[in-house]
UniProtKB/TrEMBL annotation:
A biological process term (GO) from this entry: tRNA queuosine(34) biosynthetic process
Organism of provenance: Methylophaga aminisulfidivorans MP
Cited function: Catalyzes the NADPH-dependent reduction of 7-cyano-7-deazaguanine (preQ0) to 7-aminomethyl-7-deazaguanine (preQ1).
Enzyme class: oxidoreductase
Entry-linked NCBIfam families: QueF-II (TIGR03139)
Catalysed conversion reaction: 7-aminomethyl-7-carbaguanine + 2 NADP(+) = 7-cyano-7-carbaguanine + 2 NADPH + 3 H(+)
Compartment(s): Cytoplasm
Pathway listed: tRNA modification; tRNA-queuosine biosynthesis
Family affiliation: Belongs to the GTP cyclohydrolase I family. QueF type 1 subfamily.
Active site: 34, 41
Name of the protein: NADPH-dependent 7-cyano-7-deazaguanine reductase
Entry GO MF terms: hydrolase activity; preQ1 synthase activity
InterPro entries: GTP-CH-I_C/QueF (IPR043133), NADPH_dep_7-cyano-7-deazaG_red (IPR050084), QueF (IPR029500), QueF_type1 (IPR016856)
Length: 129
């Protein structure tokens, strides 16, 4: 696998597809360019998902995140595009992308986008005493 930025996302087989469980991935190294000024925007991207048959491969995820560094993107659009691309390759039961963008002009932006597979119902949380 290359270490160059790439839009090529990869997956691997989920070893436990019969169980709902959550995978959390986080990177604080996301950058893109402001489409208005061309200045860099920095963000932490959080990915939470309940896999079905496939899981996202981490190095490919990292290289995919790097592929935005020279692209102009509005925060709302890029967060939803990341969600769409990840859902397309791994078809999870549930996926949430949270983009926490650093301050720009005194304004902080957080964008949350979600996907639910049709028919999937989140399990009841267990509360222990």
């Amino acid at each position: 696998m290359s270490t160059q930025p790439s839009k090529q996302l990869e997956t691997f087989d989920n070893a436990t597809p019969d169980r709902d469980y959550t995978i959390h991935i986080e990177t604080s190294e996301f950058t893109c360019l402001c489409p208005k000024t061309g200045q860099p925007d920095f963000a932490t991207i959080k990915l939470d998902y309940v896999p079905d048959e496939k899981c996202v491969e981490l190095k490919a995820f990292k290289l995919y995140m790097w592929s935005y560094r020279d692209q102009g993107a509005f925060h709302e659009k890029v967060t939803n595009t990341i969600l769409d691309d990840l859902v397309a390759v791994c078809q999870p039961r549930f996926m949430r992308i949270t983009g926490i963008f650093n301050v720009r002009g005194g304004v902080y932006t957080t964008v949350v986008a979600e996907y639910r597979k049709e028919g999937w119902v989140a399990p009841e949380p267990v509360t222990l005493p």
